[in-house]
Design goal:
There is one protein chain. This protein is 32% helix and 18% strand. By secondary structure, it is of the alpha+beta class. The chain has two domains: 1-79, Immunoglobulin-like (Sandwich); 82-138, no CATH class. It has a four-stranded mixed β-sheet, covered by helices on one side. It has a two-stranded antiparallel sheet with strand order 5-6.
């Protein structure tokens, strides 16, 4: 998200790892950090930091790796999921009744930020969620430094 729109500071970092590498990630992480595994994520904690790294374990998310492109995020160049993939993941998260309502609302706001940067992505969001998302889209700012939809170099589908 933060590669495409103004950053919102949170205390977690979401990572998707190729399925083949999950055992290695588990072993390395548990050797150096405190870990906790949940149905959809492996959470990694450094006792000296409030940062939580969430390695996403959902099989469907690994397809994002093939479409990720190098983007600058807070001064680092990292592989980042394509905006279309972020929309798909956020739509799924916003509709997941197992997630707390406050997290689902954040997912809707994240979708609004993405649609504000890439208006054509709105068509990928099903109703009635689309109406909620569009209600949260900020009007264009003349002095905005948002990337244009054409600036994303990843695949479009």
């Amino acid at each position: 998200m933060n590669a495409y729109v103004a950053p919102v500071v949170t205390e977690d970092l979401d990572i998707v790892v190729a399925t083949d590498d999950l055992q290695l990630v588990r072993r390395l992480a548990s050797a150096h950090f405190r870990t906790a595994e949940f149905p959809d994520s492996l959470n990694i904690y450094d006792p000296g930091s409030r940062l939580q790294v969430q390695v996403q374990l959902e099989q469907r998310l690994t397809a994002m790796l093939t479409r990720a492109t190098a983007q600058e995020v807070l001064g680092l160049v990292l592989p980042v999921a394509a905006p279309e993939d972020l929309v798909e993941a956020k739509v799924a998260a916003a509709g997941d009744p197992r997630r707390p309502p406050s997290k689902r609302m954040k997912d809707i706001l994240d979708l609004a930020r993405l649609v504000g940067a890439f208006p054509s992505l709105a068509e990928r969001i099903p109703e009635p969620l689309r109406a909620q998302v569009l209600a949260g889209v900020d009007p264009p700012d003349e002095g905005s430094s948002r990337p244009s939809p054409d600036s994303h170099q990843g695949p479009r589908s």
